[in-house]
Structure formats: structure tokens, C-alpha cells
Design brief:
Blueprint lengths: L1 H14 L7 E8 L1 H4 L4 H23 L8 E6 L6 E7 L6 H13 L4 E8 L3 H8 L11 E2 L9
Antiparallel strand pairs: 1-3, 1-4, 2-3, 2-5
Helix pairs in contact: 3-4
Amino acid sequence: MNMIRLFKDNITDWFEQWKFFRPVFFTGVLNNDYGYGDSEFNDELIRKNNKHFLNELHRNVYLKSKKKLTRLIVIEKGQGRQHCHMVIDVPEHLSINEFVFLITKSWLKTRGGISIDVTPVYNMNGLREYLSKELNPNCELLGVDIQNSFKTI
């Protein structure tokens, strides 16, 4: 029990290194093929789906700019359907509502995305705790999507 708590504390400390200025919390629900698979190949499909989503979102937000969105992505694999949680910074030139529209449009354009929930973030500490709830120190396949997460600072 102390080992798991120590791990969660380390994860929470790691999350604190991510600085967001106007974040939204996005939950992307995956279709049955992506959401209920449990192989390493399926995990790769989810990461590719996330990459496709982020590329599409970037095209809609920045057009041809080399700027990148600050984002932290966690793939949650609980008791039911796998899904993705993302904390994404809203770009300065967009309202939250405009950004939510672009997130929705981009997620639904992916092969695996079927529905979303987006809310503004008011309590980063609570969100860090929530995101670390299912991270498992004994399994590399669970947790943070390092390939698609990006921090600017």
C-alpha cells in the first residue's frame, strides 16, 4: 500500500511540471474496436488515433504555424471501455467555445473517436489526482501517452 501511494505521489509531482494557462479537460470516447481491445497492438491504434486527432486539431487551430498546443494525454483503461483524457491549453486567439468546437470536429473526424466531453479546468490539483488514479507502476501500457503529450515550458 505504501509503495502504490509513493508512486502516485511521484506521478502527481511529475504532473506539476506541466504548466497550463487556460486549459480544458477533454474526454474522448473510443468506438468498440478501439475501446474494448486489450492488446499492445490496440494501444498503438489508440496512440495513432490520438496523433491523428492532434494533427487535425493543429491544422484547424494554427493553419500553417509551427506552434504546438500544450497537452497532457492519459489513456484510461479501467473496468469498461478504454478512453482518452487530455488536458489541452486553449490558444490565446480562440475563445473556449471556439476551441471546444474545433476539438469536437477534430475528434469525430478520427477513425476511433465517437463522442466527447469537454469542460474548462478550474482545479488543476484535483485533476492531477484524477488523472493518476489508474496509473499502474508495473505496466508500461497504462497511463500517459508520452508520444503525443507536449509541454511548451
